[in-house]
């Protein structure tokens, strides 16, 4: 049995997704013969409550230079980060000449809001071409991984920070103790660490198992984050649910005793107890629901195919790799996947090798059914696809349940 990455006790594996390729490993046809596979399994630590992958893939296999992810491509996310930055500025940067640090600052989508307001800031971004894109926009960026050493380097040059931020990056870091060692060096006595990640409560509620893939080592709850913070003399002082990424949580952590925790912390901790997020039995049931979801999705796609309908995938997301491989959905069921990312077009999807084509192909070839892999962007997509739906096109979704959306049904997943 594997050891917990946080507390080293034994974790209880609760779901095995089977043989899985790298989620973001879109490949050219000639690369198919040496594709890398591993066993994707997820487990729960009964001691510190952290849900996590039971085996980690060598990071060298995960990061591809051929197409880095640039956050600023999505206008919805840009607006989300503007609001996130504004919230941090109002609450935590009242001191004279404040300093804000971001771990995994990407192309500066968050920090540009601080830069524009004249707030001192340092982005820490290990991906060289992404860090360069941020610098070109005037965002002060250090091309490093964030750890104790990087924290000392920043502290020596700029002093201690009022706020250290993260967004969809902390769950990608296997050694979270190194992050907290860095925070201990870098945070002022009243400084805060604010981060947002997909929330375990949403994953359990919606059985959104496609959040599970190689780059997401951890699936956080208030229980697990509180336990982690306590190990480092810190505490959870505030939490705010967010609708992005299929349901996320914003956590605020500070040194023990430096801030009074808000009522939301106790409230959502209690809700987690009611929803069983601190109990192993919940995850055994989740595994059964994941199997049932797979059977329902494959059954529906086969039925539609049997009616002579052409099915296309919508959005070649990392999440879709878990769905297609776990369910065994290949080109026999899904003709192609359309995606707007140029670096993925002309390639094959990982593992099951469905061709990835430009969005224009979706519009021109008019499939009957679109399997919505990018369900977390459903509201934007459905608003853009009124013509497809008015012409009889149907969307199939699988979160929170497998169903067809015809032109009259709306879709809510964040409720
Ligand atoms: Zn643990």
Helix content: 25-40%
Give the mean pLDDT.
93
Given the helix and strand composition, which structural class is it? alpha/beta
CATH topology of the largest domain: Rossmann fold
Number of strands: 17
What distance lies between the first and last C-alpha atoms, to the nearest angstrom? 36 Å
Approximately what portion of the residues adopt beta-strand conformation? 15-25%
Radius of gyration: 22 Å
Small-molecule binders:
zinc ion
Overall geometry? globular
Task: Write the CATH homologous superfamily of the largest domain.
Answer: Vaccinia Virus protein VP39
What top-tier CATH class of the largest domain fits best? Alpha Beta
Largest sheet: 7 strands, mixed
Poorly predicted parts: none
Strands in their spatial order, largest beta sheet? 6-5-4-7-8-11-10
CATH architecture of the largest domain: 3-Layer(aba) Sandwich
**How many individual domains?**
2
Give the count of helical stretches: 14
Structure description:
It is a single chain. The protein is α/β, with parallel strands linked by helices and 415 residues long. It folds into two domains: 205 residues, Rossmann fold, CATH 3.40.50; 124 residues, 3-Layer(aba) Sandwich (Rossmann fold), CATH 3.40.50. Helix content is 34%, strand content 22%. The chain contains 14 helices and 17 strands. It has a seven-stranded mixed sheet with strand order 6-5-4-7-8-11-10. It has a six-stranded mixed sheet with strand order 14-13-12-15-16-17. A four-stranded antiparallel sheet has the order 1-2-3-9. Helix 4 links the parallel strand 5 and strand 6. The radius of gyration is 22 Å and the shape is globular.
């Amino acid at each position: 049995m594997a050891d917990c990455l946080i507390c080293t006790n034994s974790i209880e594996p609760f779901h095995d997704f089977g043989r899985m390729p790298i989620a973001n490993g879109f490949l050219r046809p000639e690369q198919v013969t040496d594709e890398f596979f591993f066993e994707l399994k997820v487990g729960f630590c009964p001691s510190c409550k952290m849900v996590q992958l039971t085996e980690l893939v060598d990071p060298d296999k995960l990061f591809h230079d051929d197409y880095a992810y640039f956050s600023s491509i999505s206008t919805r996310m840009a607006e989300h980060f503007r609001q996130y930055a504004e919230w941090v500025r109002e609450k935590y940067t009242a001191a004279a000449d404040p300093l804000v640090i971001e771990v995994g600052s990407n192309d500066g989508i968050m920090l540009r809001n601080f830069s524009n307001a004249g707030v001192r800031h340092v982005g820490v971004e290990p991906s060289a071409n992404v860090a360069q894109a941020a610098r070109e926009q005037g965002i002060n960026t250090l091309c490093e991984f964030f750890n104790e050493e990087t924290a000392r380097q920043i502290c020596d040059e700029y002093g201690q920070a009022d706020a250290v931020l993260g967004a969809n990056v902390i769950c990608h870091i296997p050694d979270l103790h190194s992050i907290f060692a860095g925070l201990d060096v870098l945070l002022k006595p009243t400084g805060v660490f604010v981060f947002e990640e997909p929330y375990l409560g949403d994953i359990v509620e919606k059985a959104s198992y496609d959040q599970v893939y190689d780059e997401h080592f951890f699936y956080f709850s208030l229980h697990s984050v509180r336990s982690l913070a306590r190990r480092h003399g810190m505490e959870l002082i505030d939490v705010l649910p967010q609708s992005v990424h299929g349901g996320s949580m914003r956590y605020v952590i500070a040194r023990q005793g430096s801030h009074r925790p808000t009522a939301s912390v106790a409230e959502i901790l209690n809700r987690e107890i009611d929803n069983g997020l601190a109990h192993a039995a919940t995850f055994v049931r989740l595994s059964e629901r994941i199997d049932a979801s797979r059977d329902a999705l494959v059954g529906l796609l086969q039925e539609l195919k049997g009616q002579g309908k052409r099915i296309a995938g919508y959005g070649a997301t990392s999440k879709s790799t878990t769905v297609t491989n776990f369910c065994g959905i290949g080109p026999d069921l899904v003709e192609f996947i359309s995606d707007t990312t140029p670096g993925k077009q002309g390639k094959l999807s990982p593992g099951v090798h469905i061709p990835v084509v430009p969005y224009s192909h979706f519009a021109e070839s008019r499939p009957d059914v679109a399997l919505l892999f990018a369900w977390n962007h459903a509201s934007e997509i459905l608003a853009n696809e009124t013509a497809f739906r008015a012409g009889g096109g149907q969307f199939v979704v699988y979160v929170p349940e497998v169903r067809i959306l015809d032109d009259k049904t709306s879709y809510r997943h964040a409720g």
